[in-house]
Amino acid sequence: MRSRLFLTVGSTLLGSVLLLASASLPAMAGARPNEVEDLQAQPGPYKVEDLRMASGPSPFAGGCPGARFDDMAIAGHELEPAITVNPANPRNLIATWKQDVGLADQTRSDLVASSLDGGKTWARHTIPGLTVCTGGTADAGSDPWVSAGRDGSVYFSGLSADLSTDPPTTAVVASHSNNGGRTWPTPVTVAAPLAGNETDAVTGSPTLGRHAYLAWANFLLTFPRTNSLEFSRTIDGGATWSPPVPIDQPGPFAIDFSPKIVVLPNGTLLAVFARFDAELGLGTLQAARSLDEGRTWLPAVQAGSKPVFEFHDPETGALLPQPGFPSTAVAPDGTVYIAFEDSRSPSSGAIGVARSRDGGRTWTRTTVPGVRAFAFEPAIAVDSHGTIGLIWYDLRNDRPGDAALTADVWFAQSDDRGGSWRQNHVAGPFDLRTALPSVNYVGEYQGLAALRGRGFAAIFTVAAPLAKDGPTDILFARIGPAR
Questions:
Q1: pLDDT value for 167
Q2: If you compute the radius of gyration of the chain from its CA atoms, what whole number of angstroms results?
Q3: Residue 326: per-residue pLDDT
Q4: pTM for the whole thing?
Q5: What pLDDT is recorded for position 305?
Q6: Predicted pLDDT at 28
Q7: Of 92, 328, 386, 461, which sits with the fewest C-beta atoms within 10 Å of its C-beta?
């Protein structure tokens, strides 16, 4: 939650914080000869099986009297979706996003949507007490995330903001659903309101029922200042959360942000996050391990580094989307993957993928081939057969000199641990300039989750002409093997 909610963090600086890893990571090789026999039989190319609208008319179109700066919110402006699949019911998909985002990143509330038919239809729900719009006291909500645990419990995390302070304060909050995302109790506060609480994400345990893990950053971009990456867990299905403990604490001229927790097959927790070092002008990927379910954390390992760049639209001078939020996933065999932005200029782009086969201790990397233009906001997942899925935006279909900044959503799959890739178009084209550049046009992250068996559930933000209700809409795509 940035801009007015976090006055010392502008989208320009955050957008330039991290473009990672190709310079310092060795290239990722394909499957070694002794690995070939344990790879699953390679399927044919995946394709979009279903593409549907997940968002709809704003439930807050009339506004939220009593919420500060509510007049700055824009009905029908949705951003930053996340998605999960219920292991207890694979046709049950749950998504979340920011609803009615304003010019100063004022957001009336986060919404949750659920599907019981594999994404063909979606029902949208509010979380009681999350913001003024839903009966609470917070002026705004942001940074929604959602994840389902092994037993079917679904967990939500987000931020609730008080805009009366300077700078505003945000609390990290969490809620849970026991009926597939259809109803939610009032959120509990996991981290008390503080200026700088940011970039939360929750992970339901794939191995332990009623266990889930929540990580977030606390930072202000006012150097020097000591900031921290924090962790909390629940062992009672989300009713209560443990007191926060630090995952990592960088030096006074650096910030950690955008942590994601993944659970390895042996129960080890791995926190993958980004770091910006202002003294060195470097962005890095980091990975920290916990052997005791998050009670304590080993020192973080650097997975890659690169000088920080900032890219602007050559035609307008507007900052191009480049939030630098890594996405991470773990395969059934325990291999961990991180997807990250690796563009080198406003016209040449790349999506990088880092890989660890030893629980996050060491890393190799590859670059997804065929990305021929500025690329941003990748999301990665791995299905039960070990196929890697990856979505991202790029500008390959943009035509300099016209009125539009044209973007498309793309998907790539790898059936050999990143050694080779197949690519398909998912959605687009659409015009980024019809959205709002102050919030990276389409927000800071999108969502991808593995379906049971083969295939993926993708959720992402689009602008006009694909968006039909407000500046943006949220689309869902089911992506699976070609039949």
A1: 86
A2: 20
A3: 97
A4: 0.93
A5: 86
A6: 57
A7: 386
C-alpha count within 13 angstroms, C-beta hemisphere, residue 1 = 40
Distance CA 444, CA 465 (A): 21
Count of residues for the chain?
483
Low-confidence ranges of the chain (pLDDT < 70): 1-43, 105
Cα–Cα distances (Å) from 244 to 198, 210, 232, in that order, read: 14, 18, 5
Percent over 70 (pLDDT), the chain: 91
Is residue 393 within 8 Å of residue 372, measured between CB atoms?
A: no
Q: Look at residues 49, 177, 173, 67 and name the one whose alpha carbon lies nearest to residue 123.
A: 177
Burial class (CB in 10 A: 0-12, 13-18, 19+), 266: exposed
Tokens in use for 93?
């998909």
Element (H, E) at 287: strand 282-290
* 240: Cα within 13 Å, side-chain hemisphere: 4
Count the Cβ atoms, other than its own, within 10 Å of residue 464: 17
Which pair of tokens denotes residue 229? 């990456």
401-428 CB burial, b ≥16 within 10 A, e <16: eeebbbbbbbbbbbbbbbeebbeeebbb
What string of DSSP letters covers 414-450?
ESSTTSS-EEEEEEEEEEGGGSBGGGTBT-S--EEEE
pLDDT of residue 339: 97
- Cβ(474)–Cβ(78) under 8 Å? yes
Q: Which residue has the tokens 């909050």?
A: 173
Give residues with Cβ within 8 angstroms of 305, minimum separation 6. Answer: 20, 21, 23, 24, 282, 283, 284, 285
- What is the rounded distance in angstroms from the CA atom of residue 118 to the CA atom of residue 296? 38
Q: How far is CA 259 from CA 56, 136, 162, 356, in A?
A: 30, 27, 23, 17
Beta strands in 308-421 (DSSP E): 327-330, 336-341, 351-356, 364-367, 375-382, 388-394, 406-414
- What pLDDT, on a 0 to 100 scale, did the predictor assign at position 262? 98
Residue-level pLDDT at 179:
98
Q: What is the CATH number of domain 11-481?
A: 2.120.10.10
Neighbours of 397 (CB within 10 A): 14
Q: Are the C-beta atoms of residues 116 and 176 closer than 8 Å to each other?
A: no
Q: Which residues contact 105 (CB under 8 A, 6 or more apart)?
A: 1, 2, 3, 4, 5, 11, 142, 438, 439
CA dihedral (87, 91, 92, 96) positive or negative: positive
pLDDT at residue 351 in the model? 96
Cis peptide bond upstream of 167, omega within 30: yes
